[in-house]
What does this fold into?
Amino acid sequence: MNSASWPEVPVVGDADTQPRPHEQVQAFLDSVDPSPDPWSADIASVRADAREKVLAVSGEPTPVAFVESIDVDGVPGRLYRPSGAERDLLVWAHGGGWIHGDLDTADGVARALAYRAGCAVLSVDYRLAPEHPFPAGFDDLWTAVTWARRSFDSVAVGGDSSGGNLAAATALKARDEGVELATQLLVYPALDSIEDTAYKVDFRRRYATFAGRTGFGANSYRRLQHIWATYVPDPAARKAPYVSPLHAESVYGVAPATIVIAEHDFLRGEAEDYARRLRATDVPVEVHEYAGQIHGFFEMFAVMTDAHHAVAAAGDAVRRAFQTSHPIETSKELSCDR
It folds into this structure.
């Protein structure tokens, strides 16, 4: 198992503690060209490049029994059913910095989660910035969740990166509105819009060079600045809890969480902070941390062994959460097994 608990952030400049990528990460980074800078390239080019790169590493799609396009109260989506009779649904929000990503780039993860969790998965084609800044994407995910609660017995929410942000924010709103969720699955989520946290400042310095790429930390820092400014143009609005879930006044009573973290990720610090906040209010939290890994690995089935492990662990966690939400049925199944 490649998960671990991380030590304190090493001292910047110590040659013996410089960040080291997993060998598969190094091979991947050596094989791909850098993506265009989103602050200087047109949005169509950024989206086309991101789509091409994701589809190139998604691997063979996991077979499921039924896949259909669906309109969810005006929000487009794609519904996956591993057997066809699922009563439980995971509402999934793809990553892409709120500016790119679509149903096709999320297809590999949605299929794999449906198969492993044994539940239906609704992949949401939420609106993107800059054409549709906050709260458009958040509203679309909330619409999907409210539709799901009418259509399925039990509902969970999840997402990766910016999609993890939308999932965490939706879990907060569900708590506020009294809408029950079985769990929230947050894969290297963006949870804090503040740019100059100690972790982010240190990351920018410590990752001045990583895996042979000069400027890795600085570019990560600037990309995050850009996508936050694009998603939420008003700086004063960025600390609102449905924008930056880490700044919620309280996280008490939100759905249990499973959080996937990569070691060499600019967002790692805020995910760890969120896990600590949840635990401090007795919200059950399961954390899977992947040594040597980078942001985005969760969908890279063709090139990262850890992607298979992480999706399996996440799917198992979702499956257990749904079983917990059906205690009587689960008890009957166990009795029959004996």
Confidence is low (pLDDT under 50) at residues 1-16, 330-338. The chain has one domain: 22-191+250-337. The two ends are 30 Å apart (CA to CA). DSSP finds ten helices and ten strands in the chain.
